[in-house]
């Protein structure tokens, strides 16, 4: 019973936060704010951290959605490298 009550408490507390975060990410992506933030942070990611520019989006989304951070980096690491012409 104690475990069930804690689960219910967590769901009541966390669900609104998850929904607000998801809505904020959706609105940022749709309004172009996410792309603007990516362009603004790209020099930092490329210059200071010496990482590919594609990791900028992973870092931003990973900061807001922790589950995406690891999955996004894994997808970048296992993607085919771009081919030169």
How would you describe this structure to a colleague?
The structure is a single chain. By secondary structure, this protein is mostly helical. Helices cover 81% and strands 0% of the residues. The chain has helices at residues 2-31, 33-48, 55-64, 66-78. Helix 2 packs across helix 3 and helix 3 packs antiparallel against helix 4 (66-78). It is elongated, with a radius of gyration of 17 Å. The model has no long low-confidence stretch (mean pLDDT 84).
Task: Explain briefly what this protein structure is.
The chain has 85 residues and is mainly alpha-helical.
Weakly predicted, low-confidence segments: none
The total of beta strands comes to 0
How does the overall form come out from the CA principal axes?
Answer: elongated
Report the sheet-strand fraction.
under 5%
The percent of residues in helical segments reads: over 70%
Given the helix and strand composition, which structural class is it? Answer: mainly alpha
Gyration radius over CA: 17 Å
Number of helices: 4
The end-to-end distance, rounded to whole angstroms, is 64 Å
Largest sheet: none
pLDDT averaged over residues: 84
Q: Order of SSEs, N→C?
A: HHHH
């Amino acid at each position: 019973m104690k475990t069930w009550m804690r689960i219910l408490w967590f769901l009541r507390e966390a669900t609104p936060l998850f929904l607000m975060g998801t809505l904020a990410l959706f609105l940022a992506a749709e309004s172009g704010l996410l792309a603007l933030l990516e362009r603004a942070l790209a020099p930092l990611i490329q210059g200071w951290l010496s990482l590919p520019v594609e990791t900028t989006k992973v870092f931003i989304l990973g900061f807001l959605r922790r589950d995406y951070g690891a999955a996004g980096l894994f997808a970048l690491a296992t993607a085919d490298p771009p081919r030169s012409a």
